[in-house]
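yo, Glycosyltransferase 87 family protein is done. seq:
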Amino acid sequence: MTVGRGPLLALVAVWVLTRAGMLLLLVRDDLGIGGVASEVSGLYRHWYGQFAHGTFPPHDVTWQYPPGAGLVIMSPGALPWLTYFQAFVALALLADAAVTAALARADSARLTHGAWYWTLGLPLLLHIPLARYDVQTTALAVLALLALTSRRAAAHRIGGVLAGIGAMVKVWPALALIGTPRGRTTREAWTAAAATAATLLAVLALLFAEPLGFLRQQGDRGVQIESLGGTGLALAGAAGIWPGAAQFRYGAFEYVGPYVSTIGHLALFLTAAAFIWLVFWRIRAGRWTEATPLDAALAAVLLFTVTSRVISPQYMIWLLGLAAVCLTSRRTVMRPVALLLLPAAALSALAYPVLYLDVVAGTWQGLTVMALRNALLLAAAVLAARRLWTSTVTS
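structure:
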């Protein structure tokens, strides 16, 4: 099925039905460990109160986000006739609908499947997308990439502006610009992104106290139980060769014990190595197609995800959005990668919230789910990097 040659009404109907199901799960919020909605009604609502007093959350170890994230946290205030929770969910659905509409428009001119991938893929994460602000962040990255595919210079600048805002909200949307074609497009997009990010940071610094406090909390993070390093430690613990345990720290369960610091430093080293590889790829790349900026963005975010000390289930929202953008181009080389991400998303939701107590306790069910999910993500990252390289560098 495609948007251009198939039933647009069917896409709308499927979107409405799947989102209604996600809303129902969110209202009940009793699946597995439950409490998915508490992030919004508790933590986000608390931060909203801090912003109302003119400051970013001071000395709050759970605030680990760039200053632009405050704009998303404050945005429910634009709907005063709703409760904070209701307004947040409504805005998340609006961002989801904007992504779907943008992908459908991109699909309409060619035989592609981006809108269907997003519409059917996001519900694999159950109700998590409606209770996190990652859908809003993903919308900025998706719209930025779609703008960069235009031939108009103004659209390239708009793409840069959106990527710059996204970078100030959650950093990773800056990677949407890693694959822009050399020359005028790169200059326009990168300049617009840098100027937008700098301006937004200056404005927030003038209006609110402690705008860079998140750096302190982010630097203290350890190895989360859902990361690749965490899975390695869990398997070692299950084999009886590692004596550590999971502990709730910085708003998530992290491992504490011997070698945890080493694993954390290794993750940082691998992240730096991924960045160096991306720079080297950009220098060596000699062939650009309309799909290259899209493919490069997905490969880059995948590499940074698998090397991270933290891989929360909402990270899959980013990857599903970027894969959907890739599928709006017939020249993409990321179709196998996009297919790998679908079961990875389903396993992420199975790990949290359905089997989260098993994941924390390190039972065989929890270990199996996390090992399979992270194996799929690692395979997707390696495959994405390889296909990006072979499609742009090797003859």
